[in-house]
Amino acid sequence: MASKQLWRWHGITGDGNAQDGMLWAESRTLLLMALQQQMVTPLSLKRIAINSAQWRGDKSAEVIHQLATLLKAGLTLSEGLALLAEQHPSKQWQALLQSLAHDLEQGIAFSNALLPWSEVFPPLYQAMIRTGELTGKLDECCFELAHQQKAQRQLTDKVKSALRYPIIILAMAIMVVVAMLHFVLPEFAAIYKTFNTPLPALTQGIMTLADFSGEWGWLLVLFGFLLAIANKLLMRRPTWLIARQKLLLRIPIMGSLMRGQKLTQIFTILALTQSAGITFLQGVESVRETMRCPYWMQLLTQIQHDISNGHPIWLALKNTGEFSPLCLQLVRTGEASGSLDLMLDNLAHHHRDNTMALADNLAALLEPALLIITGGIIGTLVVAMYLPIFHLGDAMSGMG
User: Fold this and answer.
1) Based on the domain organization, do 79 and 145 belong to the same domain?
2) Counted domains in the chain
3) Pair (228, 322) in one structural domain
4) How many CB atoms lie within 10 A of CB 229?
């Protein structure tokens, strides 16, 4: 998909009419060949820049959900794709849907037509749609897939919001403190010096801190800048990403949120693929393809390896060290009773509910705690600045 280019063309059709359109092609030569097959004589060709934001998961899930609705209403697959192409506001999505509809008209299966578009439709989409084609339940598979993607996106947004909130509040508090230390406090310090009287210990300590940050603050900023560059460079190394993810998972509350999000994603997709009739190993591969974290990809690869070597599923999960005893027990029960899909679905709901509740509780607890902390810091600075004023009367009496 990365090699595909989006082109806008203007030409003359076989019946002599002028026509415009957009088409995906790997090169200008292949574009001309495609237009020739459509009996179009091109007059102008223009390459269009691709907006990668249009390929976000929520866009793909929305298209699949709309397609499932049209299929449920009785439209054929090619008719549904053509209708979606006409109604979609994005030009590149219009061209993509038209391309898929054209492939179907050429006799290509829908799941195979999606293969060149793995950036837009990940392997999970392809596996679910292939299952729908084989079982004759394409609309149901598309509905389930869209629902899973929506639920996963909501959980991800909830976790990100819970983790982002304290960072924003603390950053604002730091900005206020720095502004007071470097802009407000020096003005008060100049006033205090004119009275030539000792400052209270709290005020003296704050002024010492202000002097230190003013003298060495640039060094702290430089150090932080170097750390950011080093982290960005290390982010390209899977070993660093794995070590970083392990460390984050060990942090209280934050680690629980991140682990709950990933386990929800894993069990939701496994339950979805199991209920659709996809083998467990193929389901694990679908999960691995949707992961962006090298650490969890490594764990899923280990699970695949252990199961391929004859280990039961629950033991393969246990060997990773990231699945709770409850997970292992339910999976073991599901294997023994033949109800693995039901147990996986129960685990997905369990982890989703727990993670959502933890995110809500974290936000509820952090809001007053952060207000107290930031209020205490700023209040201390204000008291330190105004405390000498209470002694100015004595200082002025001494001068008189």
Assistant:
1) yes
2) 3
3) yes
4) 10
